[in-house]
């Protein structure tokens, strides 16, 4: 399949994705029994994963969506990221951030710091995919669907320049 200038090949089929999602949902349901967690999917990439995951969770839960906005800052890295969409008090709540993919972990570190500053009770992360850099940097991610190498992936919510979020399987760019 060709999208813009890149050729993509199937990487993880929908059925393998859903098997992993089922396992994650069962583990979270056990770990959070009687804790009524708040799932916080980070848009846009996590919308499919969040939907499949949360409907398989069997304990009473809340769901609230957030988005990360980047803007030019004045620090040396040039980019500051802030969370938008927090519309209810997360104070004293057990938060589970739902991510599609953790690459360097930069985005996640920002989100976690911001959530902790709101006085949340606990903050954990579930991600469908985790790339090598986050693993090497020991970014704390409690629940991981698939550990993958440093390759560019698309589909199941993940995009390439805005395209490809709609596919039900996950593809990777040919080298
Ligand atoms: P990080 O801050 O480097 O961990 O980047 C995380 C974000 O980059 C993810 O939430 C995605 O939006 C995007 N991203 C990283 N790797 C990929 C990829 O392989 N395909 C699509 N988006 C990606």
Radius of gyration: 16 Å
Strand content: 25-35%
Major beta-sheet overview: 7 strands, mixed
* Strand segment tally: 11
Q: N- to C-terminal separation?
A: 14 Å
Helix fraction bin: 10-25%
Which regions are unreliable across 5 or more consecutive residues at pLDDT < 50?
A: 72-76
Bound molecules: inosinic acid
Mean pLDDT figure = 91
Structural class: alpha/beta
Shape: globular
Order of helices and strands: EEHEHEEEEHEHEEE
Number of helices: 4
Question: Would you summarize the structure shown here?
Answer:
With 175 residues, the protein is of the alpha/beta class.
Describe this protein's structure.
This protein is α/β, with parallel strands linked by helices and 175 residues long. It has helices at 14-31, 47-54, 106-116, 132-136, and strands spanning 2-3, 6-12, 38-43, 62-63, 66-72, 79-84, 94-102, 122-130, 143-147, 153-154, 170-173. The strands form two sheets. Strands 3, 4, 5, 6, 7, 8 and 9 form a seven-stranded mixed β-sheet that branches. A four-stranded antiparallel β-sheet has the order 1-2-11-10. It starts with a strand and ends with a strand. Inosinic acid binds next to strand 7, helix 3 and strand 10. Inosinic acid is lined by residues 45, 99-108, 152-154, 158-159.
């Amino acid at each position: 399949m060709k999208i813009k200038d890149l050729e993509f090949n199937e990487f993880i089929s929908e059925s393998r994705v859903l098997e992993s999602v089922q396992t994650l949902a069962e583990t979270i349901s056990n770990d959070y029994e009687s804790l009524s967690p708040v799932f916080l999917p980070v848009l846009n990439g996590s919308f499919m994963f969040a939907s499949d995951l949360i409907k398989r969770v069997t304990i009473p839960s809340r769901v609230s969506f957030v988005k990360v906005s980047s803007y030019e800052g004045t620090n040396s890295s040039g980019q500051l990221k802030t969370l938008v969409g927090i519309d209810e008090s997360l104070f004293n709540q057990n938060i589970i951030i739902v991510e599609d993919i953790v690459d360097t972990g930069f985005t996640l570190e920002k989100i976690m710091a911001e959530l902790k500053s709101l006085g949340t009770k606990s903050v954990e992360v579930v991600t469908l995919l985790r790339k090598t850099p986050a693993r090497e940097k020991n970014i704390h991610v409690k629940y991981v669907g698939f550990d993958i190498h440093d390759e560019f992936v698309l589909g199941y919510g993940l995009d390439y320049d805005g395209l490809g979020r709609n596919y039900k399987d996950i593809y990777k760019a040919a080298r």
